[in-house]
Amino acid sequence: MHDYYGGRNTYGEAIGIVMPNEAKVRPLGDVGNAATFSFPVRYHVVKEPADCKQRTDDRSILEPILSAVRELEQAGVLGVAIACGFGSSLQQGVSAAVSIPVFTSSLLLLPFVYEMCPRGRKIGIITADTTVARLELFRPAGAEHVPIALAGMQDQPGYRGWTSETVPELDFDQVAAESTGVAKRLVAENPDVKVILLECVNLTPYAPAIRSATGLPVFDFVSLVNMVYDAVQAKAYPLVDLRWGKAWWRTRL
Question: Are residues 66 and 118 in the same domain?
Fold first, then answer.
């Protein structure tokens, strides 16, 4: 039995996603493609400039994102994602402003992923740009102590042109080859890497190719969105009455 309450215009969107104002191709697997998810999501595009790669002590960077998160909370979502891998530096400021879970970067998975691995192993991180992957991006995740090996996509022409919007089309095969090449070099140069984490949300469509090319587990921002959705959305499990062969559905919170 379900209870419904009024006060909203739309229903059924458990996860809200704050998107940058970037008019570029979003292939299946990208956080900006709603078909990536097996559940409805609600998008909010931030019109004002809000570069997560910059320092967040400038309120002009933080305020547009705060406004978007608050609006999504008022719309009734149960959790909000910030679609920028470098957004971890926003985590404390944004999460303190609302009463629902907010997650700003796949880097928040670092302590969890690290605890899965035997000691002495590193976490391989593929980032959009190693030149801006500052230590402060890891502090909100409590991951300063985690041993990592970094590799960046900043020198890959297909990826760079697509993410900078200078190329109106996406050559998916080229970017897949670039990302798997970076991943294989990362592992070859760091044989103690046993798990890969994709920092950039634009890399999530290529996670299956990277997993296949390296044979390693690959975590990304979509992994985090799915995890939070499973945590905030009630699921129905069948309870089978073996005497009568009937399945009775009950919502478990």
Answer: no
Instruction: Encode pLDDT of 151-186 as tens digits.
Output: 999 999 999 888 877 777 899 999 999 999 999 999
Residues 47 and 84 in one domain: yes
Task: State how far the Cα of 199 lies from the Cα of 205, in Å rounded to an integer.
Answer: 13
Alpha helices in the chain (DSSP H): 59-75, 91-95, 110-116, 157-163, 172-189, 207-214, 221-232
Number of domains composing the chain: 2
Sheet architecture: strand order including 15-20? 41-46, 15-20, 79-82, 102-103
Range of the domain at 137: 107-220
**Model pTM above 0.70:** yes
Contact between residue 187 and residue 214 where contact means Cβ atoms under 8 Å apart: yes
pLDDT, one tens digit per residue, over 14-30 is 999 999 888 788 999 99
With vertex at residue 43, the alpha carbon angle to CA 37 and CA 48, rounded to the nearest 5 degrees, is 140
Strands 102-103 and 79-82: parallel
Unique residue bearing structure tokens 């080229």: 174
